[in-house]
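Form P-L/3: holo structure prediction, ligand C2E.
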Amino acid sequence: MPIKRISKSIVCFITISLSIVIILLFVFPFVHVYGAQDKDELIVGVPGDRCPIFYIDTETDEVTGIGIDLMRLAAENAGYIPVFRIIEEATLKDALDNERYDIVMPFGSAVKSSAGNASIVSENLFQTPFTLVTDGDGKLPALDKLKIGMLKSLAAGAETVKQLYPNVEIKMYDAMDDCINALRKGEVDALLHNSYIWSYVLQKPAYQDLKVQPSSVFSMDFRVGTLDSEKGRAVIERINSGIEKMPDTQRQAIILNYTSRNLYKYDLSDYVYKYGPFIAAGILLFAVVIAFFLQRIRIVKMQQEEKLRKVLDHDPLTGLLSLNGFKKKAVELISSHPDTPYFLSYNNIRDFKFINDSLGRDAGDDLLRFWAKKSMENISDDEAIGRITSDHFVVLRHIASDEHMQSDIENVFEPVKNFFIDRGKENKVQIVSGIYVLTPKDFRNIDIDHMIDLARVAEKRARESRKEDHVFYNPDQWERGKRIADIVNYLPTALKSGDIQVYYQPQVNYKTGQIISAEALCRWDHVKLGWLSPPGFIETLEDAGLIYDLDCFVWERVCQDLQRWNKQGIHRSVSVNVSRDDISDDIDIVNKFVGLLKAYDLTADQLRIEITETAYAEKPELLIETTQKLRSSGFRVEMDDFGSGYSSLHMLKEVPVDCIKLDLNFLTSSGDPKKSRTIISCVIQMVNMLDLELIAEGVETKQQADFLSSKGNNIMQGFYFYRPMPVEEFEKLGDRIDTFPLEKQKS
Ligand code: C2E
Ligand code: MG
Ligand code: MG
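OUTPUT (holo model):
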């Protein structure tokens, strides 16, 4: 074959092939279009939240269900390719107006669209039973009085119900949960919905208590609908032809296919509802176990810390506190016992090195352990002892009586000194001590190192002196501390034994010479310190927080005397002193005084209450309130020591008292006497103008009394008239004591 012919054949073949391809490319689309014309696409709008009728298959993400399969069958019978779209509108009636959908479903009958357009519906695809569901077993009212709840998306169905049962009241809700809440609250008697949907919804654990009413209320048709237009009618006609071709058996098979499947899927809330108590119990158990373990860890940690602390805070040889432990405990004790007089001693064994060298280290250790043991036996919980190094011991101890000291000597020092002698050896142990007595400043600013240093300075002096076995760093403080201890420690017994007595100092009307009242003043015949007048112990008791005990004792004694006099037919009045510390949030003195009146059957005018002016500076509001309460309970309140404080005039303005007590001692003891007289006469004038009463106390001379009288004040108290005296003496004054209220005695 010649080459030319071969190439001609190839060109011819390529040309024919290309022609065929071009023809195919042209013709195929037409064939396709022709085929499509044969099978039209039909957009069907459906709801997606009505399992098992319409729902989203979670595996394929496509809408499926009984309604979908039935419609697909009808549409395909009619030559359509159905495409299902979930409607975005709230109701089917809204969806009717949307041109996106060729048809919308399901409808029971033809309804007007939301925009008011008429619609047409297809033949019935299948008959759906509608069932009522109630809350529990509650009886349903008659149909014509029934209130039922339905989903808003079933608005078209609701219309059908209304047509069938005009008397039924229908309430529409957005979601199934809202329907069920309304049912539970009793807003509606029952809920109405498609039975197939109920079969799905009621599988939710939280809805288990809902009851399906046995007979279905009615059956509703299940049709497709579209707006009544030429196009719509054509589509419906075609669908109807498809529906006609649907065999009943196939419909039943579709329904059975969905209703027999277990489609309900638990969500989180279902699990919580169903297994909530178990989950809660599990969480609780877990929490308890965790808490238990955390607690254990904490305890173990604390125990370890405690152990470590003990190691750090204790001396392994003697079991006493180490320097660190002693300092900690000392700070604790001093801050929690601010009123206890303490001393800190620094103790040391003279020539301890010699003991170690001659008798051996073990003997030295035995001695130290013995000293520690004896000391521990002798001290109380609010005292501390520590070994800070070798043979150096520090002790924080109360300053108590001399007997206390004696017991230290007998029970600790003597046995320690004789430790070796008692064990058949000749060595006498010598202890030297330096003693530092804590001052008030040490309680305010606790510096243990500084205290130890000062005690050590004293110990050094004792060591160097070779004569003294103990030296005080501050002996004057020691005396002061001992005195405080003697006052504080002896108070309870003194109150019981009668060592504390009440004296009365008469108050007189200078013009008439009559005694109009008296002030109660306490006296203490101290077993150790001798005769004490109040300035010797009142402040100490105030500092120690014990003044209220003393005052209560005095008030009670005064009330006893007043009651006795009342019984003798003599109605007297007495002024009693109230310490500034009795004006406190912790003490209710008003109640106390009212109680005393009741207990001793007295009247309020018999007890006059002297409150010192200095109380105002510390707690003005409480003082004003207390004064008001006392006065409204009928007591007469007297401001004691007027002029002694810094804000006398201010207080005079603020505190509602009845009487001022002006102490001449404050004004006459120093300074220019002329000025004093001017001040006194001005005060008398001012007090008169304020319509208050005035008692001048501390009147010692006739001149003073005459001067006061000339300035218009005649009520006086002072040595010039009477000194404070025991009750027996006071009673002897007899007729000279008035029994009238003070008001009548005013000049
Ligand atoms: P006070 O309440 O101002 O009592 C008057 C003080 O002046 C009394 O002192 C009295 O003995 C003294 N006095 C009376 N006349 C004269 C005089 O002409 N010249 C001089 N120099 N002094 C005179 P006392 O009894 O020593 O009491 C002193 C303070 O102790 C009292 O001052 C009072 O504040 C307080 N006090 C006395 N007894 C008690 C009590 O039972 N409880 C309380 N909380 N304090 C009391
Ligand atoms: Mg007084
Ligand atoms: Mg006074």
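COMMENT: The mean pLDDT is 87.
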